[in-house]
Amino acid sequence: MENVSLPLPVCNDSDDTAVLLSLGAGNLSTDPRCAPPADLHSYADLYVVLPVIYSVICAVGLTGNTAVIYVILKAPKMKTVTNMFILNLAIADDLFTLVLPINIAEHLLHYWPFGEVLCKIILSVDHYNIFSSIYFLTVMSVDRYLVVLATVRSKRMPYRTYRAAKIVSLCVWLLVILIVMPFTVFAEVFVNPDTTKRKTCVLSFPSPEGSWFKASRIYTLVLGFAIPVSTICILYTAMLYKLRNMRLNSNAKALDKAKKKVTVMVFVVLAVCLFCWTPFHLSTIVALTTDLSATPLLIGISYFITSLSYANSCLNPFLYAFLDDSFRKAFKKMLECRPA
């Protein structure tokens, strides 16, 4: 059984099948064959601050991303290819922040009261959050590379249209839904077999659970980090190489000011995304290669890593406001008090 954050081994059964404890969305879940550790309640102080952190992320993320969505949809000048991808990124972040109150409620109640259907939805959205940001940023990096390539060659891009960006965005949504589908299938409400009968929303893998658990972590690491990040690194390396050669060996004009700013903005948004999500994926490698006991320090680190990955959903609107003049102007215009 697992949620979406750092997995911590608790015990092993006689047939060497790993029984795991994982922390995510503010709850603890254990395999049914393994009783909760006796000193679990000694970690209670680690839970106090989480509802506050999640509430701040929810409030800031929902406000900021909703503002970005509103501005892009309402301001005519904001309907560009890059902004179409930003719009979808904001929708994905908004979707995640919308379900955070349910995670907060589960955390405060110490059990799952919302039923199996909502359990599948919440865990699916949690996992969608892992993949959606990095995939939309990968698409934005591809777009930036094509813009730079066309500029270097002094060519136009007739196929790079707002409509094409809509189609690409839809394809990304469908791809991520397919990637997340296995987690939706395995999500279920588990009733603890002890006297408490406590319900938790977890991923319930078939036997052998340990192998399935490792496979799910490798699946997430490869599809949610290794492949898209490798693609992005290759694209930006090639982009920088072409820009350098353009200055040294070509008479072509450098990227104009607007294109430079958009490229810088995409790069910064990408850097912040990697800063927030890299610890999460590194924790996967640690979980797969080491056998750590669930100490208060490790549980605290797990919560910090989860909160950091969640925080990425509320940071992007501030980056757009700082790095893009058109966003700032559109925000100000939307906030203006117009006479009746």
Notes on the structure:
68% of the residues lie in helices and 8% in strands. The model is unreliable at 1-42 (pLDDT under 50). It has a single domain (47-334), classed as Rhodopsin 7-helix transmembrane proteins (Rhopdopsin 7-helix transmembrane proteins, Up-down Bundle). A hairpin with a 7-residue loop joins strand 4 and strand 5 (199-203). The chain contains 8 helices and 5 strands, in the order βββααααββαααα. The chain is globular and about 70 Å long. By secondary structure, it is mainly alpha-helical. Helix 3 crosses helix 6 (257-289). The strands form 2 sheets. Strands 1-2-3 form a 3-stranded antiparallel beta sheet. The N and C termini lie far apart (57 Å).
Comma- or semicolon-separated keywords:
single chain; 340 residues; mainly alpha; Rhopdopsin 7-helix transmembrane proteins; three-stranded antiparallel sheet; two-stranded antiparallel ribbon
Short summary:
The chain is mostly helical and 340 residues long. 68% of the residues lie in helices and 8% in strands. It has helices at residues 50-74, 81-109, 115-152, 162-186, 209-249, 257-289, 296-323, 325-335, and strands at 7-12, 18-24, 27-29, 187-191, 199-203.
